[in-house]
Design goal:
Blueprint (H helix, E strand, L loop, with lengths): L9 H13 L9 E4 L3 H8 L6 E5 L5 H7 L2 H4 L2 H16 L3 E7 L7 H13 L7 E7 L13 H15 L3 E3 L13 H25 L72 H14 L29 H29 L6 H5 L1
Parallel strand pairs: 1-2, 2-3, 3-4, 4-5
Helix pairs in contact: 2-5, 6-7
Length: 365
């Protein structure tokens, strides 16, 4: 038992059991494997030559309720497939199976729910002497709002199972709750720790992001900003604050949607190496030259499908201002952007040729 699903790590779990049994001398019957109900691996465990005990985390006795609480229920064939497998496991291994039941106040701790559980075991002919129910009041966790059942509800649950169905049931004492070491609490504690660390990091960064006397404004990050104040002489447009806009801060989480016709300008291959781009044919080379000329304000004739040799095209004189790492980095960014825009333009052309109606923004691009 512990954090995680043992039968989802079947090979390593079986290897560990054998080592505990053979190397440490721990009897197999003193080892219990707990599972949420990974049916295929329960069947594999059935064929193993080790006599470990099996505990099933059941928690609900109807299909709908168990699927809602444990999505793995539907993934592995549902309650019928699970209970049929458990019945077969008992027949083959001749061992008693324990059914784990986390008691959640007001959810699965009533006498009627206990009767539903009892009828479930009877329906699949699971003998009362080959089954046992462990009742564990729910451990408090930060990620779930339910609470543990009270003593009176626990006592009534036990009474129904034993008196009406002859099924033994034992309420278990919860241990390790004070140090978040109970079942399910370790993950919740780790998540809470991560949230605190993230909040502390944001608070530390905010000291630098909010200098005294300067207003905090929302910033829309766009690669297009790399081209402002460059050699072309363009200046960054003046953005004015609007009272209708939300108070955006760096790192703010906002909701947005992506249009179905949006074009992804990112490199499809995810490659960061754009220093030496490759072209499929001469047409792409000529088109790239034409785009570069457009950005520099030079008018060229539209590129035809029958492209003249590259040597006959107007030569772009490389700027001698690229003499340091910052300028080289900016040049690489602009070059990558040209290639991305070329790919986006070709995609828009394909969409248009296939009968797709482009919107105004796409037509402008």
């Amino acid at each position: 038992m512990g954090m995680g699903e043992p039968l989802a790590n079947y090979r390593n779990v079986i290897a560990a059991i054998r080592r505990m049994n053979e190397d440490l001398g721990i009897g197999a019957r003193k080892i219990t494997v707990s599972t949420v109900g990974v049916v295929p691996n329960i069947r594999k465990l059935m064929d193993e030559d080790i006599q470990v005990r099996l505990a099933l985390s059941l928690h609900c006795a109807t299909e709908e309720e168990r699927t809602a609480l444990l999505p793995a229920n539907k993934r592995y064939g549902g309650l019928h497939e699970l209970m049929t497998t458990i019945k077969e496991y008992i027949r083959v291994k001749r061992q008693r199976v324990t059914f784990e039941w986390a008691l959640i106040e007001g959810e699965n701790d009533s006498p009627e729910v206990a009767r539903t559980l009892g009828r479930l075991l009877k329906t699949y002919d699971i003998r009362s002497d080959m089954s046992h129910v462990n009742l564990i009041p729910l451990n408090p966790t930060g990620g779930y709002g339910g609470g543990p059942s009270g003593r009176k509800n626990v006592a009534k649950f036990v009474d129904v199972l034993e008196r009406e169905f002859g099924i033994s049931a034992t309420p278990r004492m919860r241990r390790g709750i004070d140090i978040d070491a109970g079942c399910g609490q370790l993950t919740a504690a780790n998540e809470k720790k991560k949230e605190k660390e993230a909040a502390a990091a944001v608070a530390e960064l905010s000291k630098f992001a909010e200098p005294a006397g300067l207003p905090m404004v929302g910033v829309y990050e766009d690669d297009e900003g790399d081209d402002y104040n460059d050699s072309s002489g363009e200046t960054e447009p003046d953005f004015k604050e609007s009272s209708d806009e939300p108070d955006l801060r760096h790192g703010s989480v906002v909701q947005f949607s992506i249009d179905d016709l949006a074009v992804d300008l990112d490199d499809e291959d995810g490659a960061d190496d754009f220093i030496d781009p490759t072209y499929d044919d001469d047409f792409e080379i000529a088109e790239a030259e034409r785009l570069i000329a457009l950005i520099k304000g030079v008018s060229l004739q539209p590129v035809q499908t029958d492209v003249a040799p590259v040597d006959s095209l107007p030569q772009v004189v490389k700027s001698t201002s690229i003499i340091d790492e910052d300028n080289i980095r900016d040049a690489k960014k602009r070059r990558k952007k040209l290639l991305k825009h070329l790919k986006a333009i070709n995609k828009l052309k394909d969409m248009q040729s296939n009968g797709k109606v482009l919107n105004e923004e796409q037509l402008e691009k």
